[in-house]
Design a protein that fits this description.
By secondary structure, the chain is α+β, with helices and mostly antiparallel strands. The protein is 44% helix and 13% strand. Strand 3 and strand 4 form a beta hairpin.
Length: 252
């Protein structure tokens, strides 16, 4: 993946959809997903495939407003056919993204109100849900460090804009406390600073009220609630209670 490249995100998404489909082909689709406890593996596939098709339809239309997913006619097959349905959707989804003008204005819930928002968003959405499936199967997820670093960047870029559908994000305020996240296998450091009117994020090296160091993939999964604070590849320094509070209130 070429970070920041529209076509690079399309290439990476195409590969990630196939990776997820291959993962779930070998799964018991009735298994519960521990990281999405209300869902079975079949439900996870359904959600992922619908969201991808919804995003592609918005880009196809360059929709100036959010399309209602509930009003879209997306036929979902029986569970046994869903892995192939997920994989087969990639052709149209990625073609729509590739054929779009990345600079075209349109609705997006995040910071970047352009068509280029969506292949990047769908790459990280699919990557996290692929790891959900792997964790359900008791497999160790593998995420390339480059993808994980970009996923953390994307999360912090978009998080301030998510309070409209995740109200607890509006509670991410403080009195100067800070959280520092540091990749040990890639160029990636972020400092979150909490202020009375909200929070900011800077790409910098700083001493935080709490700091976490670890591989980029593990930091990404921690920030998405897929890794425990106590995971043995993560080192923590400082105020664990602040870190736990941040993770609870920043959950998407």
């Amino acid at each position: 993946m070429t970070r920041g490249s529209h076509q690079g995100y399309c290439d990476a998404l195409d590969a990630e959809i196939e990776r997820m489909a291959e993962t779930v082909r070998s799964a018991d689709l009735s298994m519960r997903v521990p990281t999405c406890p209300d869902w079975s593996v079949a439900d996870l596939i359904e959600h992922t495939g619908i969201v991808q098709r919804w995003a592609a339809e918005m880009v196809r239309q360059l929709s100036p407003e959010r399309l209602d997913r509930a009003r879209m006619d997306v036929p979902v097959p029986e569970p046994v056919a869903r892995p192939d349905w997920l994989a087969e959707g990639a052709g149209d989804i990625v073609a729509v993204f590739r054929g779009s003008d990345p600079d075209a204005s349109m609705w997006a819930w995040g910071a970047d109100k352009h068509a280029r928002f969506w292949p990047r968003r769908m790459l990280h959405e699919t990557t996290v849900h692929r790891t959900d499936a792997e964790l359900a199967l008791e497999r160790e997820p593998v995420i390339a460090a480059e993808v994980a670093v970009d996923g953390i960047d994307e999360l912090f870029d978009n998080l301030p804009h998510a309070a409209s559908f995740r109200p607890h994000i509006g509670e991410l305020r403080g009195n100067g406390e800070s959280l520092h996240f540091h990749c040990t296998d890639a160029d990636g450091e972020w400092t979150i600073r909490l202020e009375p009117d909200g929070f900011s994020c800077e790409r910098d090296h700083a001493k935080g009220t709490v700091a976490v160091r670890g591989p980029a993939a593990d930091l990404l999964l921690l920030l998405y609630g897929r890794r425990a604070l106590t995971h043995d590849r993560l080192e923590r320094f400082g105020d664990d209670a602040l870190l736990a509070w941040w993770l609870e209130h920043s959950a998407l």
